[in-house]
Amino acid sequence: MSGPNTLTIGIHFDLICPWCYIGKRQLALARDRFAHKHPGVVVEPVWHPVQLLPDVPEQGLPFAEFYERRLGSPEAVRQRRQQIALAARRVGLDLDLTGIERLPNTARAHQLLRRVEALGDAGLYDALLDRLFAAYFQRGEDIGDAATLRVLAEEVGVPSDRIAEATPDDACPLPAETAIAGVPHFVFNGHRSLSGAQDASILLLAMSQAVQAPIGAKRA
For the chain, how far is it from start to end, CA to CA, in angstroms? Predict the structure, then answer.
């Protein structure tokens, strides 16, 4: 529960969303600045998985073909890639969407994250989340594949009993009580929210406002 010395940040995300990876990096920058301004406040991120495309088959789909159909033309795809690459470089990320061959079903990856979350080790969870994002957007790995997920989990030190193979049947729906405009979506102490890969300065402002708001303030 949030208190005067705690800032809880809920983050809705999906692993196939490049803006979620960029938003995670923007949030890290904002948290560093926030720690200098509010050294007595503990920040507790809470990650909420959202499957943007739950109907993607277990074996995935051809990435290039999917996005050309989704965006309408090869030129639209090229422009979107340029937009994402530019935003990523601004936060020190080098994303290579041209290296992605398969659009995965993310249910298995989200299940793995849930099992790691149950350990209560925030550092391990964050390391795995970063590794999954990097595997997909920087190395073009299939994060819907069980064997690939096992290797990635082992690389960051996830205990073997948390890497049990899972099926993608258990989708990760957005909680019904939470209405969002898209992912990434941030909720600060339950009473202020932002959607999109916002700049770190905007996230910092929202964080500062959240800890200064009276307890019981209405959600923005």
Answer: 18
pLDDT in tens, 154-195: 999 999 888 875 555 554 554 444 456 589 999 999 888 999
pLDDT, residue 1, reads 43
Question: Nearest-CA neighbor of 98 among 72, 78, 75, 112?
Answer: 78
Q: Hey, what are 20's tokens?
A: 């979620």
8 Å CB contact between 15 and 192: no
Question: 24, 44, 27, 42: which is closest to 129 by C-alpha?
Answer: 24
CATH architecture of 1-50+174-220: 3-Layer(aba) Sandwich (3.40)
| Alpha helix segments (H runs only) across the chain | 18-37, 63-71, 74-89, 107-117, 122-137, 146-155, 200-212
Cα separation, 210 vs 23, whole angstroms: 18
Phi-psi region of 72 (alpha: psi -120 to 50; beta: other; left: phi over 0): left
Q: CA geometry: angle at 56 spanning 55 and 57, to 5°?
A: 105
CA distances, 188 to each of 21, 53, 93, 194 (Å)? 19, 26, 25, 9
* One-letter identity of residue 63: F
Half-sphere exposure of 107 (CA within 13 A, CB side): 18
Amino acid residing at 8: T
- Rounded distance between C-alpha atoms, residue 11 and residue 129, angstroms: 12
